[in-house]
Amino acid sequence: MSLHAPAVRTTQASTGWVLADGTEEWRLPRTEALGCVLHREDGPAVTRPNGTKEWWIHGKRVFIMYTTGQVHVHHQNVLLLHMLGHTVPAF
């Protein structure tokens, strides 16, 4: 993974990065148990150059919104989202 520079802002838990291909990723700090997992609570953790957006919580993908507007829901992880006290994003 080739990183250019940290994104301009950092949330309470995660830091944003812009990859060489233009993909934006938000990750938690590296830990021995989890590594450096995708995570963002206030928006998509991954935004690809083609406009596809992915919502991740603690390394678990919850939603993917494709450029066509189609949304793929990972139902088992929506429960995780609720258990952690997060709301489901409005699409």
Please supply descriptive tags for the structure shown above.
91 residues, mainly beta, 1 helix, 7 strands, disordered N terminus
Layout of helices and strands:
Blueprint: E1 3-10, E2 15-19, E3 24-27, E4 46-47, E5 53-57, E6 60-65, E7 71-73, H1 75-83
Antiparallel strand pairs: 1-2, 2-3, 3-4, 4-5, 5-6, 6-7
Description:
The protein is 10% helix and 36% strand. The protein is mainly beta and 91 residues long. A seven-stranded antiparallel beta sheet has the order 1-2-3-4-5-6-7. The radius of gyration is 13 Å and the shape is flat.
Number of helices: 1
Mean pLDDT, all residues: 75
Sheet-strand content, in percent, reads 35-45%
In which range does the helix fraction lie? under 10%
What is the rounded distance between the termini? 29 Å
Query: How do the strands of the widest beta sheet line up side by side?
Result: 1-2-3-4-5-6-7
Largest sheet geometry: 7 strands, antiparallel
Overall 3D form: flat
Class computed from helices, strands and strand pairing: mainly beta
Oligomeric state as shown? single chain
What is the string of SSEs from the N terminus onward?
EEEEEEEH
Poorly predicted residue ranges: 1-9
What is the radius of gyration? 13 Å
Count the domains: 1
Number of strands: 7
